[in-house]
Design brief:
disordered N terminus, mainly alpha, three-stranded antiparallel β-sheet, disordered C terminus
Length: about 350
């Protein structure tokens, strides 16, 4: 009996020591799963009068913007995880590697290493810990330098396509990396202080939907789209927190979104537009590139919106060139003022 009680105490102590890490590991596992399924946005856009008809678009672009299934899969995993026992996952160490069976093929082995590295990168981001190359090499085990470079690129591309963060080397001497938000959201994309996963991908998807809806999306459009991603108003999400607060308050206060009441609407209805910080920090082309990457396609496969994004790029370049020319002229006038005569003083 005493021995059994001691074992229970030790097990309880071990659980307390690893509880926070294992809980974070479960969330990262859910977020890191990338399924083969994809979600077309055609059902979101089919009733949009500004959406081009089938004759106006190529067959490859018809409904080819597909939000990455990572968020969808991870949301589903969150909904069912309370029905599963925690024992097997609690035994796993956060960001630890798995030993594949001898029968595992080389392709399967590399795929497993890719999944592990992706989980590791997200785990380090969530815990706000530095990402060291030496640690990544320990995670993937014995592989060639070329294989490591290939796996690292694929892992970072998959994370970028969902969360809109880029893997960047922040210290070349120690080979230290970090996942950096594509937008200057607070706390490197987390919005809220503390640990957590980035909100940038959600924002980029919303900006993309607003763009595709003719640069103004109704609140009904936004929630119809988010519900397809299993993100619901008033329901806590393990990545985004309370989504309605995040979207209608936090991102509006940060000026990434504009949330305005439709004039004379009774009961009140609301629209979403790009906020000034979104217009300053990104562009339609950059958002389209993000959406295309998440849908495993290219921006030009969405010709209707690609052409609009190109026109915006050309206008921005023309404005920048005009400003540069005006600045050069003003600088020339300052450096070479007209001669003054005694009568001018």
């Amino acid at each position: 009996m005493p021995r059994r009680r001691k074992g229970k105490v030790n097990a309880h102590k071990k659980h307390n020591q690893t509880g926070d890490h294992s809980e974070g590991h479960k969330r990262v596992q859910e977020a890191a799963v990338v399924g083969n399924e994809s979600l077309s946005c055609s059902s979101v856009l089919e009733d949009d009068p500004q959406r081009p008809s089938a004759t106006e678009t190529s067959s490859t672009s018809q409904g080819s913007w597909r939000p990455s299934s990572t968020t969808i899969t991870s949301s589903g995993a969150l909904d069912t995880r309370s029905d599963k026992g925690d024992g097997s996952q609690d035994k796993e160490h956060s960001c630890s590697s798995e030993v594949p069976s001898p029968e595992t093929s080389c392709t399967d082995l590399l795929a497993t290493k890719l999944d592990l590295l992706e989980q590791f990168l997200l785990c380090k981001y969530e815990m706000q810990e530095p990402i060291l190359k030496d640690d990544m090499l320990k995670i993937v085990g014995e592989i060639t330098q070329d294989q490591f470079a290939d796996i690292l690129k694929k892992a970072s591309d998959r994370i970028e396509a969902v969360f809109a963060v880029d893997l960047k080397e922040v210290d070349s001497s120690s080979h230290t990396y970090d996942l950096v938000s594509k937008l200057n959201l607070p706390n490197n994309g987390r919005v809220y202080a503390g640990n957590g996963l980035p909100k940038t991908g959600l924002l980029m998807n919303i900006l993309g939907l607003i763009f595709m809806k003719g640069n103004c999306a109704t609140e009904e459009d936004i929630w119809k789209f988010l519900n397809m991603l299993k993100v619901y108003a008033g329901r806590e999400h393990f990545i985004y927190g309370e989504p309605k607060k995040l979207i209608t308050k936090d991102l509006v206060q940060l000026q990434y979104l504009e949330y305005r009441q439709v004039p004379d609407s009774d009961p009140p209805r609301y629209d979403f537009l790009w906020g000034p910080r979104a217009r300053a920090e990104t562009s339609k082309m950059q958002v389209l590139e993000f959406l295309a990457k998440g849908g495993d396609t290219v921006p030009s496969a969405l010709p209707f919106w690609y052409e609009e994004a190109l026109r915006d790029e050309e206008r921005a370049q023309a404005i920048e060139a005009e400003r540069a020319a005006t600045g050069a002229t003003a600088g020339h006038n300052i450096m070479a003022p007209a001669s003054l005569t005694p009568g001018d003083v």
